[in-house]
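Changelog note: in this version the structure field was regenerated for every chain. One regenerated record is shown below for reference.
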Amino acid sequence: MPNLPADDGPCRTNALSPTEPHSEDGTTKPGPTGHNRSEESPWVFWRSVVITLAVALGIRQFLLEARYIPSGSMLPGLQIQDRLLVEKLSYRSRAPRRGEIVVFHAPHHFDPVLISQGGGAGPLQCLLVNLPLIGALPDVQQPACDAFIKRVIAVPGDHVVVDPRGRVQIDGRALLEPYVKNYCPVDNRGLGPCRTLDAVVPPGHVLVLGDNRGNSWDGRFWPGGHFLPQREIIGRAFWRFFPIKTWGSLAPTSPQAP
């Protein structure tokens, strides 16, 4: 912004303050530094930065955020390093539905056994962990601040049975799951490393499993309980935007039991 002479305007006067430089004809002149009181404050710049960050954090916290797949628990449908969009509005007006892919707080955040073993973290700590630069520091990382991604398999009131191979029945009928290609291995007695499940989903909870049944730490294995509290869900993964060749909707493949 160019510097303007003091008192420049339609109501100009020749009255001078003791500190203002002046010429022989009585008019004021710019000070020795070439600045005056109309110089823009540095706060204007930082105010814009703060507002921009607040808007970005608000969108991320309440509306929409991008996530990536860090592991192979959702193979083959979701590959490692796939980038997804997660929306946070749907579950404010309705409950999760069978077949939807959800992002939620790690079990260390809500599982009572894991918390008693040193899990758990406060909101401020998780806020720092999720900052791009600070979160990369090894001493700051905290499992309770991580996020998991799995598929909703059963909803409140469902009688769900999961066999040793990871196959699912809902209320006595097999759940059609074309997205599952890798089941748990079993021996000739039908036994294997994966845990089984036979329970009714309680109110306010869902059962979530990884599509890669043979390699997923999901509700079958959590020590404090098999079911995910709905309040721990961050949002619904609805769109893959990278890689470009596989971009598209993540709509449920099998939303209802047959």
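Spot check on this record: Residues 43-62 form the longest helix (20 residues). Residues 66-106+146-249 form a domain with the Umud Fragment, subunit A fold (CATH 2.10.109.10).
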